[in-house]
Amino acid sequence: MAKTIYVDNAATTAMSDIAVEAMKPYLQGIYGNPSSLHSVGQRAKEELEKARETVAACLGAQPREIYFTSGGSEADNQAIRSAAYTGAFKGKKHIISTNFEHHAVLHTLKKLEDEGFEVTYLPVDKNGLITPAQVEEAIRPDTALVTVMYANNEVGTILPIREIGAVCRERKVTFHTDAVQAVGHIPVDVEEDNIDMLSLSAHKFHGPKGVGVLYCKKNIPLKTFIEGGAQERGKRAGTENLPGICAMAAALQDAINHLYENMAKEELLRNILIDGLSKIPHSKLNGDRIKRLPGNVNMCFEGIEGESLLLLLDSKGICASSGSACTSGSLDPSHVLLALGLPHEVAHGSLRLSLCPENTEEEMRYIVGEVPKIVEYLRSISPVWEELEKGQRKHLI
Amino acid sequence: MALYSEKVMDHFTNPRNVGKLDDADGIGEVGNARCGDIMKIYIKVKDGIITDVKFNTFGCGSAIASSSMATEMIKGKPISEALTLTNKAVAEALDGLPAHKMHCSVLAEEAIRAAIKDYYDKNGIAYDPAEFPEPDEHE
After folding, report:
1. Secondary structure of B78-121 as H, E, C letters
2. What value does the mean pLDDT take over residues B98-126?
3. Contact status, residue B59 vs residue B38, Cβ threshold 8 Å
4. Do B36 and A325 count as a contact with CB atoms less than 8 A apart?
5. Active site includes B60?
6. Which residue in B13, B33, B139 is closest to A345 by CB distance?
7. Structure pTM?
8. pLDDT digits (tens, 9 = 90+) for B121-137
9. Domain B6-124 falls in which CATH fold?
10. Are B39 and A384 an interchain contact pair (Cβ–Cβ within 8 Å)?
11. Per-residue pLDDT tens for A25-52?
């Protein structure tokens, strides 16, 4: 099969035709600067505000609560720092998060720790979940912020955001969620889910790269970190990325229009992969089987290393991802897999397949046919596998 | 630009000398599974010449390619020459490795030295222990 099978949609997605079409008018025709007073600028301004309304409606928010950013990382940075500094002003310098957040969150929290904030990292359980009770127990009088991701980017688990949000509301603590993997894939509603701040990124739901949103509830203070013009109500300077913003709004609307049918389709495909790949001996599905993104598969295969698996899959036309150390550029495997309690040697052999509605059953069957052959080959040349099979090393999964 | 050179990809996808030698005269194993790479090299020695060599490797593409290239470079060579093989020479023969993958070539050099040391030990051949420092613990 010469065709490329792209199953790395959690990394990024292809732009949909709808998003591409939505972008085109703003590249040349409606090119004005929304801050300009003339008609060309004001035309652009109208479209910008239409896009804001669309995004707001898709999230259950008000348009004035939507701030366009350069993507999920910027939104995470701004939300967390803003809530931290707002809290610090009132003497609150404690933050609660989890130990398996995206690095955009974890590295921001690390910087805040260097600045004198204290962060409680709630440990996820072996299925990659935390409970609202864990959050409740960790809240202190000086807690400024709770930040918990909506769904995990590697193992695909969906966290109890609504319940955590309810705890935060009751205890009057600002609640931020990195919803980059969730929005456009599962139902997300900032009102119903008790969310104060939310980050999202367009390229995860077939929109363009370099554009995202920070939702910030109207009574929650938001600090500015990119200084300059008065764009985004003074909260984020810089001429708006109108082509990107309009394409994002169209992609999000499209995702929401087809949310449940896409979920059903992805789940069907996902289950073919999980059922097929689970037949490989000494393999393991990482992350809860039920509370899981419809398009996420994450498995470990004992005795092999993930990067070599990815390279051989790529040679078969399959584009996937791994949490092995070699793919992270460090010697440690993914912090997410370690947070789930996987031993290092097992975490090195991980494979993530993340789907989109354009994937097909035929592709899934091809993957289910190819992966076992590659795993078997890599095991045949692996001294670790030899020791496992001879009983000189204990099987861990 | 691809992550790896064509040479690396060639040695990764078609590794030379892969396998085991049941009657090996020396076996060297370095690395650890926790860090994500283990290399095991088997050598057969006759009259001071490495007549055959095989490897098994658990690791990334560059670890497998480094094993393959290193075994090619010592096969049929006198032990004295194999001992002069450096990780740099292995990496160069592969048309280079990304900076964070250089440790894979180090493992290959260490695995060969470990196999030769094992051969010396098993055959009561005297050597200067200083020539065979304990491989670095890869953290």
Report:
1. EHHHHCCCCHHHHHHHCCCCCHHHHHHHHHHHHHHHHHHHHHHH
2. 94
3. yes
4. yes
5. no
6. B33
7. 0.94
8. 999 999 988 888 776 65
9. Sufe protein. Chain: A (3.90.1010)
10. no
11. 999 999 999 999 999 999 999 999 999 9
pLDDT at A1 over 60: no
Taking contacts as CB-CB distances below 8 angstroms, the residues of chain A near B38 are 382-384
User: Do B13 and A315 count as a contact with CB atoms less than 8 A apart?
Assistant: yes
Question: What does the longest C-alpha to C-alpha distance in chain A come to?
Answer: 78
d(CA A325, CA A21): 39
Q: How far is A374 from chain B (nearest CA, A)?
A: 11
Does residue A148 contact residue A123 with C-beta atoms inside 8 Å? no
Q: What is the DSSP letter of B136?
A: P
Q: CA of B18, closest CA in chain A: separation in Å? A: 7
Tokens of A314: 């790529």
Cα R_g (chain B), whole angstroms: 14
Residue A383 has pLDDT above 90, yes or no: yes
Chain A residues close to B39, C-beta within 8 Å:
383
**Model confidence pLDDT, tens digit, residues A316-327:** 999 999 987 666
Distance between CA atoms of residues A256 and A343, nearest Å: 38
Q: Which two tokens stand for residue A7?
A: 């199953």
User: The complex's ipTM?
Assistant: 0.92
Please name the residue of chain B whose CA is at the shortest distance from the CA of residue A316.
B13
A388 within 8 A of A282, measured Cβ to Cβ: yes
